[in-house]
Structures are given as structure tokens and as C-alpha cells.
Amino acid sequence: MDSAGEKLKSSDPLLPDSPSPFRRRDFFLFWTAGAVDGLGTCASSLFLPLILLGAGYPAGLAGLVASVSLVSGLVIAPVAGVYADRWPRKPMMYAAALVAAAAMGSVFVAVALGQVVLGYILVAAVIEQAASATYGAAASGTIRRLVPPGEYTRAIGYLQARDQAVQIVGPTLGGVLYQLARWVPLLADAASFLLVAGLSKAIRADLTPVREGPAASFTRDLAEGLRFVWAEPFLRFVVVWTAGINALLGALYFHAVFASHARGASPSSIGLILTLAGVGGLLGSFAAPWLVRRVPAGRIVTGASWAMVPTAAGLAFASRTWAYGLLLAGVSLIVPSVIVVLQTQAVLVTPDRLLARMGTVLSTAGQGVAVLAPVAAGVLVTAYGGRWVALGCAGAFAGLALYATLRAQLVVGGTP
Predict the structure, then answer these.
(1) Residues 240, 363: contact at Cβ < 8 Å?
(2) Would you give the distance in Å from CA 129 to the centre of its chain?
(3) Burial of 206 per CB tally in 10 Å (0-12, 13-18, 19+)
(4) Torsion angles phi and psi, residue 412, rounded to 5
(5) Cβ distance 40 to 189 under 8 Å?
């Protein structure tokens, strides 16, 4: 396998003035499908617990539905990654979108008819999350077929900006639709999946993975993906860094929410925290391709890692809601550049036949620890207070930054 350094030299994806990926029809369709998917999911997932509460179910059961559905997506993702490296990825994408549309469409019908049955909603939510995970696994292996290496940086930056924008607009859109009728967000989600299926089918590029010989058994293919990620020093660094960052950022976000609530902040004020953080992430995503083309990759990763330490420490002494929001916005501003650097090089060091498995391993590692962040933040804030939790996060950020500094040579394509 070529080293990361050889890949970077041969393709040189960080050269300035690469054309915009939006000039390419297939990338535009792929980007739009992701935006529609994200908006539809945000419009429904945030309000599905409210629908269950409105039907008389207790908060614990409503939360259980949300948690089980999210965990099911994490479990399915690595499995889907194996098949996304075996089968044509485009049919997997639009078939998964159709399954998700059917699942959410059935929930829409049930809610519209007033038949809100907990067990049925749970099964449909699990199917929808499994289908979404399958779509994501197939999609993670497509970027190499949609744009040439010289456009990876901008393409990944635009994908990051899309996802950040969806996180800002989606909840607001869902709230507006929910005010019309509680089933409207569900209808919008089902319709969005149908549109995603159509957009995915319209992609002309051949997304079939390149394989070397016949497929092995499922367990061997799954193990091969795990071994590849762990054997490649750069990807091993990405797993550790992203898992650590996701866990700590999740803890900080919920620390800010819980600490603000304890100080008597109103729901609208707490919403301002998340809005400011989302805007920071959106601005950072737009700036990331420009920054990555002008600053060495190693400096971006180490600089961003160290910059999070004083930000977390600042949260320990913040007393105003807007201060929480601005500090979190600062973190959200610098993270996208690191993600663009890491994802670009991850694509370059991974053979096409392993792209989906690599993508699902990295995403599962990052999202798996983030699932625990709300619970951990709530328990720790209650037990020790918000200040000590923020200071603890600052210490953990310092440890992660030291790790990034010691392994910075990997980010620029060297070997340890």
C-alpha cells in the first residue's frame, strides 16, 4: 500500500485554485441529496419524542425510542460498510432511501390517523435509522468517483458546510412544520427520502467499488476493514482524535445547556447557545478549504487541538448564556478545518475497495462515544458542578492536543 506521503505528492489535493466541485453535475446531485436528507431527518427526529409525549407516553419511553433508534444506526453502519464495498453503491443508496421513505411514511399515516402505538413507532424508527446508516455507508465511498483529487479539499469542505447548515435550519424548519400539524414533519421526512432516492439514481458516475478477486466471507471482510484502519498509523490517529474530540465537544455542549439551566436561563436563551455554535461551525466549514490550502496540515491539527484548551477552561468561568454560546462558537469555528484535513488524507490513503468500511469504522468510533456525552455531562454536572466539568474537559483537551503534537508527522504524510 502506498504511504500517505506518496499519495499526497502524486495527487497534491491541497494545491490552491482548484475548480469548484459544484461545476460537476454528479457532485451537485450528491450534495443536494445529503442536504435534503438532513433537513428531512431534522424536521422529524427532534419532534418524534414530542409526538409520543402528546399521545400520553412518559418521557422515559419517548427518550428510549430515540436512543434505541440511534444505537441501531451505529450497529448497522459497519455491517452496511462491508456490503457497500461489495455491491454497486448507487443502487444501495437509492434503495436505502426508499426503505427509509416507506418507514417514515407509515409513521406519518399512523400519526395522522391518531394511531400512535409505541411498539410500531419504535420498529419504524429503527428501520429508518438502519436505512439511513446503509445510505451513509454507501455514500462514504463515493467522493473519489465524483471529483478528482485536486478538488477533494473543497468538496469535503462543502459537505461539512452543508451538514452545519442543516443543523441550524433543520430544527427551525421542523418547529414550523410541527405547528401546522404534528404529522407534517413526518410527511416532510418521508417525502425528503423519496427525493433523495431520485437524486441518487440520477448520478451518472459508476460508483461500483473496485475489488481484487471474489468477495470473502462477511466476517473476513468486516475484520479486514477493522485491521486496515488499525494497521494504518494515520487512520489510527484519526480514530483516536475524532473519538476524543466528539466525546469532549458533546460533553461541553451539554455542560453549557445544563449549567445555563441551573442558572435559570430560559429555553430561548439556551437555544441561543446551540445557534451560535452552529453558526460558528458553518463559518468554519466555509473557511476550511481556504485555510487548508494555505496552512500546513500538521499545524492546523495541532493548532486547533491546543486552541480548544483555553476555550474549555473559559467555559468554567462563564456566567452568561451569550458567553457560553460565543466560546462554543469559537470551538465550532476551528474544528471543520481539521475534519477537512483528516478526511481528505483518509480518502487518499485508502484503496477504493475499502473506502466504505474505512468511512463506517471512523464514523462509528466518533459517534459511538458521542452517544454517551449527554448522560456523562448530566451526571458530572450534578455531582461536581459545571465549573469542575469544564476544567476536566480542558485537561482532557490538553492531553489530546499533546497526543496530536506528538503524532503530527503522520498528518503531513510521514511515518512514526
Answers:
(1) no
(2) 14
(3) exposed
(4) -95, 10
(5) yes
For residues 326 and 118, what is the distance between their CA atoms, to the nearest angstrom?
39
- Cell numbers 511515518 correspond to 415
Q: Is 88 helix (H, G, I), strand (E, B) or coil?
A: coil
Phi, then psi, of 150 in degrees rounded to 5: -65, -15
- Return per-residue pLDDT of the chain as tens, 416 residues: 344 333 333 334 444 445 789 999 999 999 999 999 999 888 777 678 778 888 888 877 887 787 788 888 889 999 999 999 999 999 999 999 999 999 999 999 999 999 999 999 999 999 999 999 999 999 988 999 999 988 999 999 999 999 989 988 887 788 788 888 889 999 999 999 999 999 999 999 999 998 776 767 889 998 999 999 999 999 999 999 999 998 888 888 777 777 777 777 776 777 777 788 888 988 998 898 888 888 999 999 999 999 999 988 998 888 788 888 888 888 888 899 999 999 999 999 999 899 999 999 998 888 877 777 766 777 777 787 778 888 999 999 999 999 999 998 888 643 33
The closest alpha carbon to 152, from 18, 60, 311, 281, belongs to: 18
Note the pTM of the prediction, 2 decimals.
Answer: 0.85
Environment class of residue 416 by beta-carbon count within 10 Å: exposed (0-12), middle (13-18) or buried (19+)?
exposed
Closest CA to 159 of 378, 402, 382, 339: 339
What type of residue is 392?
A: G
Cβ neighbours of residue 262 under 8 Å, at least 6 residues apart?
381, 386
For 160, the 3-state DSSP assignment is helix
Total residue length of the chain: 416
Q: Distance (Å, rounded) from C-alpha 90 to C-alpha 356?
A: 13
42 touches 174 (CB < 8 A): yes
* Rg of the chain on CA atoms, in Å: 21
How far apart (Å, rounded) are the C-alpha atoms in residues 225 and 230?
Answer: 9
- How far is 297 from 7, CA to CA, in rounded Å? 15
With beta carbons less than 8 A apart as the criterion, state whether 144 and 347 touch: yes
The three three-digit cell numbers of residue 266, written as one number: 430560559
Distance CA 233, CA 93 (A): 30
Q: What is the dihedral of CA 160, 162, 163, 168, to 10 degrees?
A: 130
253 in Cβ contact with 374 (< 8 Å): no
